[in-house]
Design brief:
The protein is mostly beta strands. 4% of the residues lie in helices and 24% in strands. It is built from 3 helices and 48 strands.
Length: 635
């Protein structure tokens, strides 16, 4: 009845001259509409008129004496979720299944793919989430983009050797557990098997290139044996792979279940973030590797890694934020460690090779290092390179270093376990950049080389354990906040030639009771000594900026040209090193020996040892002549 009615309607359209909307080649029979193909030698199934009512679809082999060769585009596609199709039977004449032919057929459980099929179009079975099995024919050559995407119940897949092309996201977010990729596939397309959360077993037979994100998110993947035909692995190809669904709790990781990966010697390219958040027991990189991508092991859990000699620059973020790093070894010379290379990583120790020239910005920031030796070839240490490494207790900077970046050794503001105590700078650097050692709350001693002529602001801010420091003779300015909150700083030697003390330079240096300011200083900012609650005395030259500052701030001013000369050749009777201070003004001794006005200028008996130019001890009642010196035991 329906067929007769449709025929009558068509005839009426022809009579009324309105048949321009109907293709002349269309023939309607039963529930299916067919159109001739371009070569006029077969029919395409173009429409199922009552597709919302069909449960079992059987496509005939012949229609009007010609073979049925193709399933047309969008045959059963519906976004309304009104398709109840459960099974499809195709004849051995079908060569192609068109774009979105069965897309969103959520109830489709079975379909046979005859050997005649050569091509499966884009999205052909996308979101067929009741499909449990698919057997590909041996003559199939191409599977389109997203063809089996979101087929959540699909299980095992074997792609035959005849297939030469698989599209992007072809099985993405499918439920496959086992995958064999045949010899015909040379390139795994972008996102081809992305987010296949159940995929455990994978066999790649002759693949030459693994595309970007190809297996990203396949966290149940147990292992992979790469073929010796492989040449390139793309960006994030194995992101979040391995380790299982419970991998996010690293305390429950069973390392025996993690794969040991061997990348074939044929591989020359490993893309950016290739193993981002992957869980790998060990990995062996090829000796001929030419390109190792940035952030290649970002946030990964990884054991032993050997960097081949072919890699001269360790790229940015290589091991950034790794949950675990085991042993890292270098087969050859690395000349540069890129920015963020070990940033926020679990790295606890590493032996950097000689030949290394540059350590990039944030290279080891917030890592778990407890010790590190900077090679004697390093010239450049970048900004924040060793920021917030609480485990380091000492650092030695070699002579080769010519630049240390801003905040290079910055301590954590909220970290009570900043343990860096000693810094030795052997290099001939001329500058110390902004906040280089700020917040290092355990820093007790640092020796600054005489080559330094500029120290930027906040370099020693919040170094609460620092008690004394000598500023190199070429420095002409104490920068803003240089020693802010150095609450235990008691002794500081300012050089002749210093001209400026900037705002907040000694802010909150609460242990500073006195300071000697050279005559060369012409500018002292009004806030230079803010919150120095115990500062009472300033020593300096009459008529100098020091005297003016003292009077303006109600501080005691003592006229004295005092130059501290440290020498290992002067010792007291107990063999202890002493400091020699030439006195050029005729001051009274009490100006210098008072523990309140000038703490530290006393020996073990709390009396200054006064000697004349011939070395004779003078009494405390004597005046101090221009040729006399005060000799103080270093405590």
């Amino acid at each position: 009845m329906k067929t007769k009615l449709l025929t009558l309607v068509l005839m009426l359209f022809l009579i009324l001259g309105l048949a321009t909307t109907v293709n002349a080649t269309e023939v309607v029979e039963a529930q299916i509409t067919y159109v001739l193909n371009d070569t006029q030698d077969g029919y395409i199934v173009s429409e199922c008129i009552n597709r919302t009512e069909v449960v079992n679809l059987v496509i005939p082999e012949i229609y009007e004496n010609l073979p049925v060769t193709e399933i047309g585009d969008n045959l059963f596609y519906s976004w309304k979720n009104d398709i109840i199709l459960e099974s499809v039977t195709l004849p051995n004449t079908i060569t192609k299944i068109g774009t979105s032919a069965f897309s969103c057929a959520h109830h489709l459980k079975t379909i046979n793919l005859p050997n005649s099929i050569i091509e499966i179009g884009d999205n052909a079975f996308w979101s067929c989430d009741s499909l449990t099995e698919i057997v590909f024919p041996n003559n199939l050559q191409k599977i389109g983009n997203y063809a089996f995407g979101c087929t959540s119940k699909l299980n095992e897949v074997i792609i035959p050797d005849s297939v030469v092309t698989i599209g992007e996201s072809v099985f993405s977010e499918s439920g496959i557990t086992s995958l064999v990729v045949g010899n015909g596939i040379k390139i795994i397309s972008k996102e081809a098997f992305k987010s296949c959360y159940n995929l455990k077993n994978l066999e790649l037979k002759a693949v030459e290139e693994i595309g970007d994100y190809a297996f990203a998110g396949d966290y149940e993947l147990l292992k992979i044996d790469f073929p010796d035909t492989l040449k390139k692995i793309g960006t994030q190809a194995f992101r979040e792979c391995f380790g299982g669904k419970d991998k996010w709790n690293i305390n429950t990781i069973d390392e025996s279940t993690l794969p040991s990966l061997v990348i074939p010697e044929t591989v020359t390219y490993i893309g950016d973030e290739c193993f981002n958040s992957a869980y790998i027991k060990n990995i062996q990189l090829p000796s001929n590797l030419e390109y190792l991508g940035e952030y290649v092991f970002l946030a990964a859990y990884i054991g032993k890694v050997e960097i081949p000699a072919s890699i001269k620059v360790l790229p940015a973020g290589t091991f950034c934020a790794t949950k675990k790093i085991g042993e890292i070894t270098f087969k050859g010379t690395i000349t540069e460690i890129g920015n963020q290379c070990f940033d926020c990583s679990n790295l606890s120790s590493i032996e950097l090779p000689e030949g290394l020239i540059k350590i990039g910005d944030l290279a080891f920031r917030q890592s778990s290092l407890t010790e590190i030796k900077i090679p004697s070839t390093v010239e450049y240490i970048g900004n924040l390179a060793f920021d917030e490494i609480s485990g380091l207790t000492s650092i030695e900077i070699p002579e080769s270093v010519t630049y240390i970046g801003e905040q290079a050794f910055l301590g954590g503001v909220y970290n009570p376990n900043n343990n860096l105590e000693n810094v030795t700078i052997n290099s001939n650097i001329s500058r110390i950049e902004y906040a280089t050692f700020a917040n290092q709350t355990s820093l007790k001693s640092i020796t600054l080389p005489e080559t330094i002529d500029f120290i930027d602001g906040s370099v020693f801010a919040n170094c609460v354990s620092l008690t004394e420091i000598k500023i190199p003779s070429k420095v002409t300015m104490i920068s803003s906040d240089l020693f802010t909150n150095c609450i235990n700083l008691k002794t500081i030697s300012l050089p002749d030639g210093l001209t400026t003390i900037n705002s907040g330079a000694f802010n909150q240096c609460t242990s500073l009771k006195s300071i000697t300011i050279p005559e060369s200083v012409t500018n002292i900012d009004a806030s230079a000594f803010t919150n120095c609650d115990n500062l009472t005395t300033i020593y300096g030259t009459k008529g100098s900026a020091a005297e003016t500052f003292a009077k303006e701030n109600n501080l005691k001013f003592v006229e004295a040209n005092i130059t501290v000369v440290e020498t290992e050749e002067v010792k007291n009777e107990e063999g202890e090193l002493v400091t020699v201070m030439p006195i050029t003004q005729n001051n009274k001794i009490e100006d210098f020996v008072s523990t309140e006005n000038f703490p530290g200028l006393v020996d073990r008996t709390n009396e200054a040892v006064i000697r004349d130019a011939d070395g004779n001890v003078k009494s405390a009642a004597d005046g101090i002549g221009s040729k006399n010196v005060i000799q103080i035991v270093d405590k």
